[in-house]
Structures
1.
Amino acid sequence: MTIRNAAIIVAAGRGQRIGGEIPKQYLSVGGEPVLRRTVRIFLENPDINLVQVVIHPDDLDLYEHAVGDLDLPIPVFGGDTRQQSVLKGLEAIDIHMPEYVYIHDAARPFLSQQILNSLIREVSHCGAVIPALKVTDTIKYMSGDNIDNTLNRDFLFRAQTPQAFRYKAIFMAHRRFEKSDLTDDSAIAEKSGIKVRIIPGSEDNFKITTENDLKKAEMMTGNSYTDVRIGYGIDVHAFEDGDHVILGGIKIPYDKSLKGHSDADVALHAITDAILGAIAMGDIGDHFPPSDDQWKGATSDIFLKHAAKLVDEKDGVIASIDLTIICEAPKIAPHREMIRDRISEMIDLDIDRISVKATTTEKLGFTGKGEGIMAQAVATIRLPE
Ligand code: MG
């Protein structure tokens, strides 16, 4: 079946200009991965029939996490350069024989529907069109250490994406100049003699490249997570015969165990309830009824991860967790760092946002008499307004 309009989203770059291990197209902006924002723009346009993403082979997990639930064909693996990646994308959509193709950088998540619609309209008239902006700074041409020349900026434009072409023409041009290393598709078109028009681009349609761009992007989403919620959780489990307790996901040798339906990890239960409390989504028992046999003997990281996922679904972030474990024994201090580390890993939260404290009750009450362990936790959650 042939289609009219296909988009190729180029997301195979490594984005090394912004520090860190995650390529910029997978970083979150306003609680949503950059790639997801970009892809949604195309999916939401009724005239775009297909959205093909090109990714780096190492990024499959990141891709799944970012857009796995959206209606997209399986991603194509890119090549070593942007140009090679685009060619892979063009090859992948060839079976659909699209009439027009819109090649877009994943790191431009603020493309407006207005620009996209203008491109869709224009390309059917002229066959090749890109958004571009006039250069406002005066541009100097250097020769060695000195300025050789001042260019006439009336003729200078900054190219953006998406770049729209007749599919067959740009595919042939890409194949023909496969060995060159050009930084946009218009350059390939120009090289093969295709006349490329421009329409006005937008400053908002910038490419996230630097740390500053990322900050600007965060501000543009208007999402500063100013809706701060506090949740509180408390849990108690009694001791029974045994040889270890599980606290914060860590197995601690002791001459008793904690009694419970699951692994009785009183610490994780308190944190789970604190998180659920902050987003007003009931308690651990609502989500994992003790009457349901499938949670028998379950490890409690399942409960905590579920609560964190609910926060994620609200586009929120966990700002901090403060846990207090109350017992006479076993001693918590030697295991504290491991518990913090373990929780950090479970919910993908910086360790400096996780506090683990312990106290006794001076031999008073059930914790003082060594009948069980209590845990209390406070979670701070930030949600978008
Ligand atoms: Mg419990």
2.
Amino acid sequence: MRSRDSAVNQMLEVARQEAIETTWDRFEAQLPQCGFGELGVCCRHCVMGPCRISPFEDGPQRGICGATADTMVARGLVRAIAGGAAAHSGHAKHLAHTLHKWVKGEAPDYPVKNEAKLRAVATRQGISSEGLDVRELAAKVVESVFSQFAEGEEPLAWAGATMTAGRVEALAKLGVLPVGIDSSIAEMMHRTHIGVDADPVNLLLGGISCAIADYTGCHIGTDLADILFGTPVPIQSEANMGVMKENSVNIAVHGHNPVLSDVIVRIAKEMEDEARAAGADGIILVGICCTGNEVLMRHGIPPLTHGVSQELPIMTGALDAIVVDYQCVFPSLVEVARCYGTRVITTMGMAKIPGATHIELVEGEAVEKAKEIIRLGIEAFKARKGRPVKIPQVKNKVVSGFSVEAIVAALSKLNGEDPLKPVIDNIVNGNIQGVVLFAGCNNVKVPQDNNYLVMAEELAKRNVLLLATGCGAGAYARQGFMTPEATEKYAGEGLKAVLTAIGEANGLGGPLPLVLHMGSCVDNTRAVDLAVAIANKLGVDLDKLPVVASAPEYKTEKAVAIGTWAISAGLPVHLGVIPPVLGSPLVTSVLTSGVKDLLGGYFIVETDPYKAAEKVFAAIQERRAGLGLGTSQW
Ligand code: BF8
Ligand code: SF4
């Protein structure tokens, strides 16, 4: 089985019939994958290499410079964290530059949309709003953001202000609070150069520090996106390929940053007439990956597909354009698009693909650029008119938009004075056993969505409250798990009662969805904010809460960075794909147990989703017991 998504499977059949190569075909062509790489015991950090460590005692046990398996594995892992941190914080920096340009009057298309969030963030960061208008305050916030990137004297203020005091103390004690995002990434590159840090444990501590820098970048990314484009509120939409229509101009936005896609959403509405003049019924915008999550959360734009299946909607013949920014965009899109007339449009100077059309996003002319891009989609529609399309008739309802602000607002209908109390009371009485955040990607090594679906079913019936972000949220959206109906079907009695009480207090006439969509991958910090609020209210640190993160189908360096900051935040983190560390028993043991004594969090590696759900539930029970709460058997 390649996927649990029936739309994906239908399109894979089309790919087979039409002899179009997919991600899965290329995966098979790679098999067997390199065993040294899988174990993490190869190194290309200098040109004396590549070097590799033999799994057999009579083979080489050191690289040419003398690096051991432990050193190689640790170096490889922390470089991945640096890569992830660079991506997340690059995204955040881009948003900061956009806001900065608006402050300077150079980007009129990007006014602050959410002044309340701007003021709340300023207050949190100790920036006085008094007497400042929006532009002046935005200038101060941008200045504070930029100060987080360079090397400062103090630990990162945006990390310190958003974690529990206990966490900051624990990280400070280990000496791993970073003093700059960019400087932290640069330091990891330095430390992993040949002949610098060879101590695996020291490297891992450096990796934790860089992961905290990643967290900071993610948090800034979410804060600034909310300031510029609005904080999400619950919104209903549909998901999966069946949302496209044959006689519409179908345009997908793909990548991560809402800077361009949010403007495209705005402008597409104004261009309906142009589309109709071209013979279309209108324009249907759809999302792929995390850009898709951003525009789903804020505008209800339907998500089309995610991660490994991103090529497949092109083969419907109905997708007129894919507009991409950066991250997780497969270069193979261009090859597939060539066969179907789909326009692939890159928009960032630092993220081009050979064969794609490049239209550079210039913030000062964002609306013009958005129009140009949409016009290419309309042209492609005209060119394909009359050609047959094969749109799988698969779509599901999705309710998304669960920012922390939205969750607190919903809870305040139950208790206006103390909105978190209903959640805490229900955790204490066991109606909610704990909370699991599903994060991360799809990975071709796992039948697409299978680990997400199995684990959600298993945990929901045991009354675990489920949150999701990234392509994980995408899986649940496409598969109908973000609906009240899924709650009725899968939730245990306690969980169902709580979700129903909240739903009814908010006039929904039924429960909240089974899995709450908290946004894109940078938005994992929303889940941290929620956990921090609960921890502070209970007067305990995060490493005591019955909260677990799970990345059952992760693939990217960004996911590695997030997983590392989640364990550093004190959470058990499940991984459903084996990371390339097993070549070092030392590194493996530090990550799965040693780090627990230092920070409370640790990795649980389990590829079987049923066993993974059991282990995650056991971790929740261990935490409940630690808090003196009633426990429950599997
Ligand atoms: O940042 S979940 S495949 S799209 S890395 Fe990429 Fe993974 Fe999807 Fe979003 Ni996150
Ligand atoms: Fe080999 Fe050392 Fe060079 Fe790596 S850094 S390639 S282990 S010599």
3.
Amino acid sequence: MKIYAQDSKNAMHADGLVLSFWQPEDVKQHPKLPSWAAGSLDAAEFIGAAGQMVMIRKNGPARCVILLGLGMAEKTNSHAVVAAYAQAFGVLKNARCKTVALEMPALVGHALHNISLSSLAGRIASQVVMADYVFDKYKPADKDTPKSSVDEVMLRMPAANMPASAISVSRAVLMGEAANLTRSLQNEPANVATPSWIAAEAAKTARSAKNGKLSIRVMGRAELLKLKMNAMLAVGSGSAQEPKIVVLQYRGAAHNGWDAAIVGKGVTFDSGGISIKPSSKMDEMKFDKSGACAVIGILSGCASMRLPVNVVGVAALVENMPGGHAYRPGDILTACNGTTIEVLNTDAEGRVVLADALAYTAKTFEPAVMVDLATLTGACSVALGDLASGVLSENDSLVSELIDAGERCGERLWRLPLWPEYDDKVKSEVAVVKNTGEPGVAGATAGASFLKPFVGERAWAHLDIAGTAYGSKPKAGLAAGGYGLGVRLVLEYLSEYKPAKKKK
Ligand code: BES
Ligand code: ZN
Ligand code: ZN
């Protein structure tokens, strides 16, 4: 699919067209509404309410025209506008449009005045690239209803906005494609997407990275044993699948050091282990690898966007099963940095896996900044729902940079506390830390507090994506399943990375 900016003064030729309107403008009087469309619209039908869509089918310049409501100009925000455009794109795609024109909204005087038209065009472009994605490889092709596909998307805007938009749109498309790569890994079921399979996919990604700046190393059980990663190995011991650590290295800067390390929880299936989960919705635990899948997408995006930073990505891949060799509640594990862990619940396995992955990454690469992504706690999803991921860190500037990046790309973050006063919640009587806090008390913070001894003194942020990484409903124009969350966020953060600002 090609997606590009186009001068709105040029004649429009497309199968589908989206015209957007703020509420409560008089739609019939609106200068953008072509005369051929005006006659077929009853004013009461369309008021421009947020997300409202009315489709007109006519023999005009486009056979399908969607009038898209953006809501009250002073009340809406960019997230809602972007979602509305992506949903409208989806409707036109289903209507078998091959070419789609999206008329950009006028931003002057609206709640969106703090965002430029070029960045909004970029946001819409990446959302459209992601709205175009479907996971249908296991569905047989239906001869009667061939798959619909869009070849071209034009973002129509004033000529003055085109140079800046061309840049932001091309960057955004690369981000959207990287996120789609992550989604295609997330959506694979656990019987296919084993740690070895994901590692092999990551290797394919590294090989196909165009500028050859992405290298990969895969470590299996023997190497993990040599590195004393006993915590991660314990989590995988109940499964027939061999645990793997994938290390992806992207060098885009001239200096030698690592600017950032991105670490992802990759539990390919989380049955809970001996502390087994209830069956309802257990199928969704194939998405417990989402953090690791995001890492692979992020590193692929670094390479395609040619970001001028050195980034290392670490995906910790392991399956949590209740086999005869499984680890048990009561076990005491020693992670690779010597820190001991008392296991009180084998379902709190993500933090146990991350313990080794973070300690290994910190020691091996000494990155200036470390960020981890993990579907870590149900508590985070209870607190924030599916609209924001949790960010936990003691580094205020890192938190605000990540939050800003989230606002710029539409993947919102909300800070949860990580004060030292919470550390007691995970102190163990028999080891350094225990893997559960008090049930029902500050669960997301307990998860992050547990990770502190494995990170040491460095700029680090933990992103809890349990509520946002995937979903059973379409969201903001994206199909249900993996949402590729975290990919655009971290790429956006890395795009603005300033080494001088990093301090603990
Ligand atoms: N993978 C889950 C967290 C999760 C829950 C992700 C729901 C997405 C949706 C994690 O491994 C887990 O089970 N965490 C436990 C921790 C508890 C036992 C301390 C939880 O959140 O209940
Ligand atoms: Zn679990
Ligand atoms: Zn888990």
